[in-house]
């Protein structure tokens, strides 16, 4: 018999107690963005420290200039990997409270249809319910085997819903203590109810605001039109030049570091059944706008983009004004993948723009953020092990996905701890996180615990 | 001896009295945009009617729903042309009053340097001083010859500085009474202190606002970027496509009706010494932005343009927001020349835009104004006669110029009275019209009167 089987049995048996514990944590109003609830945030941190100590972790509340962190350590067998598990105990505000069908801080089990139960309450899915799946897996393993299968460090933050101001300094100050072989992050979702997913790619971001300046004042377009440079014309020319007719980005060097996604990964994405219609239909669109010949999942998970997030120039009020503006500006962002270098992308873009500015005009740049993409190797042994473990637990095999956006903590782990992250979570798209009537599937909570037990087992074999 | 010589002598002799009369008109606070001065506007109209009656005109104040018009008629010899002279008796407000060196409604002669005198006061150049040059020419002619050399109708409006709301309905209602062989409009300027000018081309205008609509809501550029259509990208593509690299406008059919300016006209413009540096330097630019190989004067006087007067879309506040907007819009205007048809231009532009909108997106159009260009034939005999007359009066020969902007009354004369206009005026660029310390050169007032006498003489020979 494998080491994990009795742990899975124990998790099945312990489900009611694990729910009681979760309800205890869910009833704490740890809304991080509202200073009124600062004491509740600390209470949640203390609750977690006490619970982790019961399991046998060396756990403590660690003060920051904001809400405290929870850090906990547990040894593992010599030679086993060292994992850092990350979650957050803070929650979103509950407004508008009148739309909640029950008290957001009085968690309950609700049977939405026969045999289909959910856990209701603020934080049930984001992220208290998710982080407790890992804690329960550790507890059961310890109960059954008297130890954990590998060395585990836990980091719970209390400011994820309010911009994580303390995270970077805390990671920097405690890098030696927190650095592990890799991180496990439980703050994402399943592909669907039956299909677990591991997110291995998160796009990076470079934001740049450009302001084109022409005449030293606004001009009358009758008197000067045809002679004087129009900054909106220059700006639209620059922006239009960025994409060719097939949606490729034309900035020299832009694709340096971009890799082709392995064909078996692309094939696995094809099996997910996501099409341009299913992806874009809900927002009223139907035609992918990016590089031709690539699926919407590849476009959003594994390809870089140039997007224009804002543009303004000249007269924008009601009616008309025959003006040639003195300046016009745009906010441009690039989503990066793989090994694209934010600094090189920014420099290449600036050069691209400058080459298109007439000699009697000028351009100013303002940088807004720059972070590289996160990309776990598709052939990482940890990934393969975790996928197999998840596939053993759920009705359908686990899929490797990407994410078009970024999850800052993953980049911070890379930057400050030099550590990759495996993103595994059990949320569903309809969990209503950040909204009234947040819920977490009872199935997610139960099979999530079992999934972590399987993953811990797999990672150490 | 010609008929005009004694009239010119009389004008020289009458200069002081003509100044007294002008001062009388200038002292009336006929600020049309401010209802406080409605009675002053009527007073100015009545003053003009009284003065025209003294000359022998059949003159009357004609009520409108706004400030009144002045209409006056005087017969001419059988077979002589019938001219309609236009000017406006209303003036701009005087704010900021504290910047005036003297009372704007206490006109005076000021010697700015030895031998160089100006008439100071609101309306001195725009347009009371100018319209009185014509009235004085008629008065002197009548005094000398007991008649006028041609049939003259005069129209003075009192709402030019406040949008001329009554002009179109008045022209329409009184078309039979006002229609003449052509109009003389005295509301423009000289090329320079020594060089009179006749403006024969005024560009037309088509304004169009376009709004590109993509998704039915704003999207997160991380989650949707690369898949969802971005309306700013579509809009900038559309706008960038309008000009080719040589500044030509690529909209099919756009140049239909555009004529090449005769080479002798282009040569005469070359002699004016206006260069890209002299034209654009004062506003901080130096490189003509329009069709390559054409001078700034040709570009602004005789070539059509497409200008982008405003653009807005997405997030335009401080900082950055990674949004893909639901829509983006731009205000586009076309300056038209010669026989370009505003309706066809608008339709061609709409087609051009629609062809560039992806099938899952849409575009909306909002029309803002449409008027054809005004172009007097370069070989009109009236033009040649008027040019010769002006050349006889001033140190340098008269030049035929264009104007990049439009003067609405000229279009209205064309539309409602089917009549071309000859634009002759004696203002200078430094007259500070619409600003504090407006002035009119004493020389402009005196030689302007003489110029009109010569023009009336020339037109009837």
From TrEMBL, chains A, B:
<dbReference type="Pfam" id="PF01546">
    <property type="entry name" value="Peptidase_M20"/>
</dbReference>
<feature type="domain" description="Peptidase M20 dimerisation">
    <location>
        <begin position="200"/>
        <end position="359"/>
    </location>
</feature>
<protein>
    <submittedName>
        <fullName>M20/M25/M40 family metallo-hydrolase</fullName>
    </submittedName>
</protein>
<dbReference type="InterPro" id="IPR051458">
    <property type="entry name" value="Cyt/Met_Dipeptidase"/>
</dbReference>
<dbReference type="Pfam" id="PF07687">
    <property type="entry name" value="M20_dimer"/>
</dbReference>
<keyword id="KW-0378">Hydrolase</keyword>
<keyword id="KW-0645">Protease</keyword>
<keyword id="KW-0479">Metal-binding</keyword>
<dbReference type="InterPro" id="IPR011650">
    <property type="entry name" value="Peptidase_M20_dimer"/>
</dbReference>
<dbReference type="InterPro" id="IPR002933">
    <property type="entry name" value="Peptidase_M20"/>
</dbReference>
């Amino acid at each position: 018999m494998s080491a994990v089987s009795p742990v899975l049995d124990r998790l099945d048996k312990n489900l009611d107690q694990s729910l009681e514990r979760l309800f205890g944590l869910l009833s704490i109003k740890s809304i991080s963005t509202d200073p009124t609830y600062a004491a509740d945030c600390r209470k949640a941190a203390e609750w977690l420290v006490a619970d982790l100590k019961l399991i046998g972790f060396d756990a403590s509340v660690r003060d920051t200039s904001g809400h405290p962190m929870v850090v906990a350590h547990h040894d593992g067998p010599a030679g086993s990997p060292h994992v850092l598990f990350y979650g957050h105990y803070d929650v979103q505000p509950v407004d508008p409270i009148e739309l909640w069908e029950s008290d957001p801080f009085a968690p309950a089990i609700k049977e939405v249809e026969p045999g289909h139960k959910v856990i209701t309450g603020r934080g049930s899915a984001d992220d208290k319910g998710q982080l407790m799946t890992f804690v329960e897996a550790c507890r059961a393993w310890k109960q059954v085997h008297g130890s954990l299968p590998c060395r585990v460090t836990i980091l719970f933050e209390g400011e994820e819903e309010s911009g994580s101001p303390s995270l970077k300094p805390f990671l920097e100050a405690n890098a030696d203590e927190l650095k592990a072989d890799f991180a496990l992050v439980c703050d994402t979702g399943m592909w669907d109810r039956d299909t677990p997913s591991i997110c291995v790619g998160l796009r990076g971001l470079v934001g740049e605001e450009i302001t084109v300046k022409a005449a030293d004042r606004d001009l009358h377009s009758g008197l000067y039109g045809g002679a004087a440079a129009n900054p909106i014309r220059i700006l639209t020319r620059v922006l239009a030049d960025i994409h060719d007719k097939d949606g490729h980005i034309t900035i020299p060097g832009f694709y340096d570091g971009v890799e082709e996604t392995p064909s078996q990964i692309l094939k696995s994405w094809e099996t997910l059944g996501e099409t341009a219609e299913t992806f874009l239909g809900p927002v009223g669109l139907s035609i992918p706008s990016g590089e031709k010949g690539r699926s919407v999942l590849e476009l959003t998970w594994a390809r870089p983009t140039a997007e224009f997030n804002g543009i303004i120039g000249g007269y924008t009020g009601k009616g008309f004004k025959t003006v040639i503006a003195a300046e016009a500006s745009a906010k441009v962002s690039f989503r990066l993948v793989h090994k694209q270098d934010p600094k090189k992308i920014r420099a290449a873009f600036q050069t691209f723009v400058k080459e298109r500015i007439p000699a009697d005009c000028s351009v100013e740049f303002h940088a807004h953020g720059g972070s590289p993409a996160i990309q776990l190797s598709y052939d990482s042994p940890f990934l393969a092990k975790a996928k197999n473990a998840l596939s053993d637990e759920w009705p359908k095999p686990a899929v490797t996905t990407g994410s078009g956006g970024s999850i800052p903590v993953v980049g911070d782990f890379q930057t400050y701890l030099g550590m990759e992250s495996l993103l595994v979570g059990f949320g569903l798209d309809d969990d209503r996180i950040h909204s009234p009537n947040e819920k977490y599937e009872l199935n997610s909570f139960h099979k999530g615990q079992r999934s972590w037990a399987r993953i811990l087992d797999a990672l150490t074999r």
